[in-house]
Design a protein that fits this description.
The protein is mostly helical. It is 87% helix and 0% strand.
């Protein structure tokens, strides 16, 4: 009985972590897509293409059961979209002045 409970607890924990990774990835995808729609014309085409490819890769893996892969693609998307974030930040700073 105790072993079953421990096994179930471990499975529950893994499932919870997977769901959390998916939710974070989906949030990031949504956020980057919105930023790209708003500011995509402010970055060069190569940078935009890199971000779009990272979005597509993240979208493909987010439905999988592979938490490590979901996290890896999320990380790649976050890195790819850094330039976009910098532009948005600079714009916000300029507007605040």
């Amino acid at each position: 009985m105790v072993k079953d409970a421990e096994a179930n607890a471990e499975e529950d924990k893994k499932l919870h972590e997977l769901v959390q990774a998916r939710n974070q990835a989906e949030g990031l995808i949504h956020s980057v897509k919105k930023s790209l729609a708003d500011y995509g014309d402010k970055i060069d085409a190569a940078e935009k293409t890199k971000i779009e490819e990272a979005i597509k890769a993240a979208e493909e893996v987010v439905k999988s059961e592979d938490k490590a892969e979901i996290e890896a693609k999320s990380e790649e998307l976050a890195k790819a979209s850094q330039k976009l974030g910098e532009i948005m930040y600079a714009r916000a700073q300029a507007e605040a002045q």
